[in-house]
């Protein structure tokens, strides 16, 4: 962002702090890039409160696939990774970059089917949600009270 870079260069000269910027990507809705996630439509997103069964159902039923319409077409032409939602979600959540590259290569070439990619995504998401569930269960009322306690802020500018 050229305006942000210019502001960081100019700010110290006029006696101001350099601004900070956090850039992030949004997760696409399960139905594809054209849709958006919505709290009123639970089929558009995976929630950390979803059960393993709900995650499996949402991914298998609603996650938009870039794979071919038939197995024959898919094997011949491969998948369109640019629009495939399971691949995009794996790009965010799969920690093993080599495995992700292999999935993209195999799926894009038609050697891996949509069901296999969705199955791997379900495994990754279910594991992540289960880890979150365990960590959340370990939080005690005392921990919440300490975190939420009113306390003075440090003087960062004085």
The rounded Rg comes to: 22 Å
CATH C-level name: Mainly Alpha
If helices are DSSP runs of H or I spanning 4 or more residues, what is the number of helices?
A: 7
CATH-wise, what's the superfamily?
Tyrosyl-Transfer RNA Synthetase
What sequence of helices (H) and strands (E) makes up the elements? HHHHHHH
Largest sheet, in brief, is: none
Distance between the ends: 31 Å
Can you tell me the residue ranges where pLDDT is under 50 for at least 5 consecutive residues? none
The percent range for strand residues is: under 5%
Helix content: 40-55%
Structural class: mainly alpha
Could you report the average pLDDT, rounded to the nearest whole number? 92
The counted number of beta strands is 0
By CATH, the architecture is named Orthogonal Bundle
CATH fold-type name: Tyrosyl-Transfer RNA Synthetase
Question: What shape does the CA trace take?
Answer: extended
Count of spatially separate domains: 1
């Amino acid at each position: 962002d050229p305006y942000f870079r210019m502001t960081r260069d100019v700010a110290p000269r006029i006696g101001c702090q350099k601004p900070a910027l956090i850039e992030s990507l949004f997760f696409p809705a399960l139905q594809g890039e054209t849709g958006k996630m919505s709290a009123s439509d639970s089929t558009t997103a995976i929630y950390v409160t979803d059960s393993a069964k709900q995650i499996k159902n949402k991914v298998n039923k609603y996650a938009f696939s870039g794979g071919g319409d038939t197995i024959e077409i898919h094997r011949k032409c491969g998948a369109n990774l640019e629009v495939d939602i399971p691949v995009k979600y794996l790009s965010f959540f799969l920690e093993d970059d080599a495995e992700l590259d292999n999935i993209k290569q195999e799926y894009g070439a038609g050697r891996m089917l949509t069901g296999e990619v969705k199955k791997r995504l379900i495994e990754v998401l279910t594991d992540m949600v289960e880890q979150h569930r365990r960590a959340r269960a370990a939080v005690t009322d005392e921990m919440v009270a300490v975190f939420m306690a009113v306390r003075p802020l440090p003087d960062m500018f004085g």
